[in-house]
Amino acid sequence: MNKGIALSKGNWLYFLGVDDRLINSLVLEKIATELKPNIDIVSGKIQYHFTESDSRQIKKSKGVFSSSWTWKLWIKNTVHHQATFYQRRLFLNRQFDTSYNVLADYEFNLVLFKSRKKVKVISNIIAFCSSRGVSKNYNWSLYQEEIRLKTKTSTKLLWTFFYIIAFLKFLYKKT
To answer: What pTM, to 2 d.p., does this model score?
Structure first.
């Protein structure tokens, strides 16, 4: 992603994973009207390709995941890069922290949320995404990465809080 940022020329950046695809051929045309200079981020929805073995939450929503740029971002990743368009200027002084193997985009979004960037949440579904990606493995190392990024982005005093939340989420996903 950082290599793509370095090569980019436009005002807006969008990141699509290798096993993801745009919802249809007209989605970028529809979204273009939302990409305004006074907005930092435009975030929509994704549609998971899901199966019966996926989580109750994914099945309950029929695979549709809506981005949420609220305090809930501190509890769980409520923003997917496949549904989000970023002003290129957001990356001029800071890029994705590659010390995070899986959650670099989550860490970046927390930093943007904390700095109160102007976000517009839209109702459009932007992309189809796999429900089997690396971030969906739910192994303990993923939660350790989450604890580390949240503690770094906020304060070490909240480490215990973040640890408890991560541990409970880990147990929930394993049951």
So the answer is: 0.85
